[in-house]
Amino acid sequence: MVPMITRTVAAGAAIAGAVTVAALLLAGAGRTGATPDRNRAVAAVGEARTGRLTMVLPAAVSDRIYAAPSAVGRPIVVIDAGHGGQDPGATSVSGQVHEKDLTLALARELRDTLVERGRVRVAMTRDDDRYLTLDERAAVAQRLDASTFVSLHMDSAPNPLARGATIYSLSDVASDAEAARAAAADNRGGSDEAGGGSVAAMLSDLAMRDQMNASAEFATRVAGKSAGRFELRPEPHRFADFHVLRRAAAPAILFEAGYISNADDELLLRDPEHRKAIVLALAQAIEADVATRSRIES
Ligand SMILES: [Zn+2]
Predict the structure, then answer these.
(1) 200 alpha carbon to ligand 1 midpoint, in Å?
(2) What confidence tens digit (pLDDT) does each residue in 113-162 have?
(3) Distances from the Cα of 89 to the Cαs of 155, 183, 191, 249, in angstroms?
(4) What's the CATH code, domain 65-297?
């Protein structure tokens, strides 16, 4: 029991800050060797985690909802522009652009298209160049009781010939080695927790199994709408253990729009005209998915 934590548990929103402080203490202790503060920091993080208080949304994230007047009461789609701020994501092969800038451009275009079409409401985890942990991103979907969560990314691989888009949905077992690698890369993007429980354990939860099934159906739909419109990888729907999808508590996919490590894909992904094809496929898949699920639920 650490006095600092005892006080802040009751304070609710202050706990996120307390955890951050504890994490910084821990990081500092790791760099400078063992100090008396180290054990205290470990205890503080563990304590906050068991209290499930790490999902408190920091004030920096906006709850703004974008919607046409006709879309009042419609399901909310949360669009997550991957990376941001101190986390640039992958750098393009030309060196001229970072993943975080392309994901934000694509996220804004998808938001505008969905709002214009008027069938869903939209929220964004970020609409500027800021850093968010994966838990903070997922918390936006939780807080808004989102119907759908779409995390947007740009792929990168050592093989300069690798091209095309991939749609990932959550699974405890990766569909292939590259899917496992992609999840490992994106899971590095900053979680509030060190582990957070294995997916295998959470599979015992019926809600989590439903979420995985619904996410797989959604991913299939996105692959179907994308086919013939822009380049997809072979077997474009893949499975992996993405932290941000696991925590979103809604049908969720992680969309890798193409490889910015490939010169042709980079040019296409930097072209707003090309991104229009991607945005239209995503928008149509999102709307169809939301419509199907609301029919089943009502
Ligand atoms: Zn990424």
Answers:
(1) 24
(2) 999 999 999 999 999 999 999 999 999 999 999 999 999 999 999 999 99
(3) 9, 13, 15, 24
(4) 3.40.630.40
